Hints:
The chain has one domain (2-220): TIM Barrel. It has helices spanning 2-20, 39-47, 58-67, 84-87, 100-112, 139-146, 171-184, 202-207, 217-220, and strands spanning 29-33, 52-55, 72-75, 93-97, 117-122, 152-158, 193-195, 212-215. The protein is of the alpha/beta class. Helix 3 (58-67) links the parallel strand 2 and strand 3 (72-75). The protein contains nine helices and eight strands. Strands 7-6-5-4-3-2-1-8 form an eight-stranded parallel sheet. The chain is globular, with a radius of gyration of 17 Å.
Amino acid sequence: MDLLRNLQNVKEKIHRAAARAGRDPESVKLIVVVKEASLEQVKLLSELGVTDLAENYAQQLVKKYEVAPNAVWHFIGRIQTNKIKYVVPRCEYIHSVFREQEMAEIDRMASKVNKIQKVFIEVNVAGEKSKAGVEPERIRDLLNSSQKYRAIEVVGLMTMAPFVEDAQQVRWVFRKLRELRDELSKDWPKLVHLSMGMTNDYEVAIEEGATMVRIGRAVLQGG
């Protein structure tokens, strides 16, 4: 079974990367990104014991949630405020928050469904014009703003590194996010998690402290 074999392969690589960094492999959560997955694959992943699934698009989330309602769902795509009403009731975590208007709408929706929504602040560490995220020097402003919202809990930072052939070239991006988290968590102790690392670079991200890795292609297609 390809999915099972791919999953085992990814988990082994996570364990090895954690061991190289002297970390407990259990401190790294594998989130399988199902943006490219069929409903049958989503159902199978859930049956294979995958506990955490992520989607980029609100409409797809609604459909896929139906076949794996017991999974912990993560929203990792660009936020459209008019789609938050679909995301908040279904997702434990939203990884891609970087504007206060997004926080305001998430808070409004979470209050309506009587939950505390866990969110990550997305940081554009590499300064890529094509990528979303707040500039590193503006994270404190956003954290300060978040304190006015009662139905939001900021639990970590998220980033996407530039796509390169050699993941060593983006190690600095992951290291910078960890350093930012370490510094900010002195004032915001709930800022624990680092959502960083995808199929192309997750082993390096783990070596630099990732607590959640977002992996799609390596699980769905192998490699």
